[in-house]
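Researcher: Please translate sequence to C-alpha cells.
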Amino acid sequence: MDNSSGVGVIDKAATLLDALEAGPSTLAQLVSSTGLARPTVHRLALALAHHRLIGRDMQGRFVLGSRLVELASAAGEDRLIAAAGPVLLGLRDATGESAQVFRRQGEWRVCVASAERPVGLRDTIPVGTRLSMRAGSAAQCLLAWEDHDRLLEGLEQARFTPTVLAGVRRRGWAQSLGEREAGIASVSAPVRGPTGRVIAAVSISGPMERLTRQPGRLHAEAVSDAGKQLTLAVAKSAA
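Model: Translation complete:
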C-alpha cells in the first residue's frame, strides 16, 4: 500500500517519527531504519527538534518529543489512554491488585493510566510516575521485543538478564519479584500498536506475600487478556 501523501518532506518527517515509536535511536539507527539519506535524516531531525516533536535523551539519542504528548492530550484522541480506564478496572477487579499502563519515554517508563486497589496493602503508582527501565516486569515487556542493538543497550545495568527476556518473548508476558522494590511482585504483558510494535505494557503489582513467588501462575492470563484488549482498541482507532 502506498502511504505517500504526495508531500515529500511531510512523508519523510512522518517516517522519522514512526521509527522513533520503537524507542531511542542514534542518527545511524534512524538512517538504517528509515532508508533515508543521512543528511536528510539529520536535517529533518534538527527541524523537528526545534518544534519539540523530537527530543534527545541523556545519551544524545533521538526520542519522540514532549510536544507530541501535549498535542495528544489537547486533541483528546489518545485511544490507548481512553481505553485503559475500563480495562484496568476490570483487571484490578479480576486480580484484586493495582493495575497500570506504562509507556517508555527515553530511559524511563511512565505510568499513563492506573487503577488502585481500594483497600489493604497495595503498590501505589500514580499517573505520571517515572520508573526505571532497568527493573520490573513492565520494563522487561517494553524491552524484550526491541531490536538487537537496543536490547543490548537496555540490558546494561539491568536487574534482569537476556535469558529472562527470552522467556518473556516465548511466553508473551513477564513477571518480577522484588526487582523494582523489595517485597513487590508484578506481572506485565505487552500492548502493541497497529504495526505490531510494542508501544506500552499493562501490569498488576502488589506485595509478594499476596502475589506469591510465582505471580505469573496466578495472573498471567488476566494480564495478557488486558494487553490484547488494549491492542485491539489501538488497532480500531487506527482503522
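Researcher: Any highlights?
Model: The CA atoms of residues 184 and 207 lie 5 Å apart.
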